[in-house]
Amino acid sequence: MTAESRIHELRHELDQHNYRYYVLDEPSVPDAEYDRLFNELKALEAENPHLVTPDSPTQRVGGQALAAFSQVRHEVPMLSLGNAFEEADLREFGRRVVDGLDQPGAVDFSCEPKLDGLAVSLLYRDGQLVQGATRGDGTTGEDISANVRTVRNIPLKLQGEGWPAVLEVRGEVYMSKAGFDRLNAAQAEAGAKTFANPRNAAAGSLRQLDSKITASRPLEFCCYGVGQVSESIGDSHIGVLEQLKAWGMPISRELKHAAGIEECLAYYRDIGERRNNLPYEIDGVVFKVNSLASQRELGFRAREPRWAIAHKFPAMEELTEVLDVEFQVGRTGAVTPVARLKPVKVAGVTVSNATLHNMDEIARLGLRIGDTVIIRRAGDVIPQVMQVVLERRPEGARPVAVPSECPVCGSQVERTQLVKRSKGKETTSEGAVYRCVGRLACGAQLKQAIIHYVSRRAMDIDGLGEKSVEQLVDEGLIGSPADLYKLEFEQIVGLEGFAEVSSRKLLDAIEASKRPSLARFIYALGIPDVGEETAKVLARSLGSL
Ligand code: IVH
Fold this sequence. Notes:
This protein is of the alpha+beta class. It is built from 17 helices and 22 strands. Helices cover about 30% and strands about 25% of the residues. A hairpin with a 2-residue loop joins strand 21 (about 415-420) and strand 22 (about 425-435). Helix 16 crosses helix 17 (about 530-540). The radius of gyration is 30 Å and the shape is globular. A 5-stranded mixed β-sheet has the order 2-13-10-3-9. Strands 16-15-14-18-19 form a 5-stranded antiparallel β-sheet, with no helix packed on it. The protein has a 4-stranded antiparallel β-sheet with strand order 5-4-7-8. It has helices spanning about 5-25, 30-45, 85-100, 145-150, 175-190, 200-205, 210-215, 235-245, 260-275, 290-300, 360-365, 445-455, 465-475, 490, 500-510, 520-525, 530-540, and strands spanning about 70-75, 85, 110-115, 120-125, 130-135, 140, 165-175, 220-230, 255-260, 280-290, 300, 305, 310, 315-330, 335-345, 350-355, 370, 370-375, 385-390, 400, 415-420, 425-435. Bound molecules: 2-(butylsulfanyl)adenosine (IVH). The site of 2-(butylsulfanyl)adenosine (IVH) has 15 residues, from strand 3, strand 8 and strand 13.
């Protein structure tokens, strides 16, 4: 076989794998096989540079940096959407749609998530991707062709056949939650600026003059409509999207049909419940009248279609003030800064504290007490301080100082040292963590140590919750895990939550826990850096206590 025909064969095969992976969500070969084919193609192309074409799967690496983006005029304007916040707004929208149509009767809608990224237009001529553009002001956007070509799930050429000569696909470029976390971790590691949210990360990554940077960012595309088309490709919105999917366009897995506005509301509630578990961030759902004929009949009002609406979810970010920064002491003595906030509702929950992780994080944020900050509560994760709004810094905002003494026990607080050993040499550097040296003499560490000691995966002592442990420590009944074994019935009965039966039960549970496996016992001791796995390794090599 000639190099040329092998190159064609490989490209076809890789395109098929990409389609199955990104569009159908049914990968057909393991990643290793894909990589093998990809590398074979790359090698053949390197030997035969004249056979490289712009639609080859190897051409997603970005090219020469631009001096500036050129402008692109949108033949069909890129519009925005009206918003609904309450169920009543949506019902009102439903009534306006019905009233706006000549034919009375039920109206069908399409339902899609509203991805939080940025709108892009992709122009295909004879099935080849020839241009990518941002929305801009809706009439004129920027030419980001080189950048969109690096987005892995944007087809460089369409699959199948029958596509119109001119086909402009529209959709959202976004970053998944996992991609965002990975990118931010890498940025922080490299000492580069981190992004406040996946939307900013996607925007910052796509609007790069150097497309090689775009290529290195985990961007994804989801198609939600068309702009300019040289011939009709369907008579319903869902029909159009399914046709685009058949041609290789990724569309939302959550695309649904709704017969009437009540089904739209049910979709909103369902997606709302699953919002935290979706792999990407959404700020609402979008409903569109499904029939394209009805869409034409309804038309537009100003810059918004009368046939579509965005039903928004509560925002996940809010502004609030940092009233103070306090320090909490954890099980290993780590003294962790926590921001006390002026209470604010974020995505339906009142937030008055946010973790600040460590002093490096405070330095990175440049945070001072009194600052106004952006608070973000994504999913069930603890609220985070994302950014300081410097323009709002009041006079007299105070820098945060690490206490020199433990706020719980008064022992000294020391900065941890990071020890690196390589080739027999030892180097130390300052760590980000500060520690109270009090160990079990520190009430905070003692409580956490005992909570860990009795926990299910450690000694598994039933009947001792956090509150009970705190009581036992506060009452001076235990000063170390060993003291658990000296507890007597008379000491516990009568404490809050301990009647006769529960006191007996606790003593029985302590008694029953006396013969753990060695690994469990080692783990229960809570030695710094000794987790369950390390404990098992130690137990195996030590053999016995
Ligand atoms: S349709 C004429 N569908 O939301 C209709 N937009 O507020 C134009 N968006 O600029 C847009 N997901 O960036 C549509 N499933 C979806 C969407 C969506 C996200 C964004 C898009 C648009 C903005 C409008």
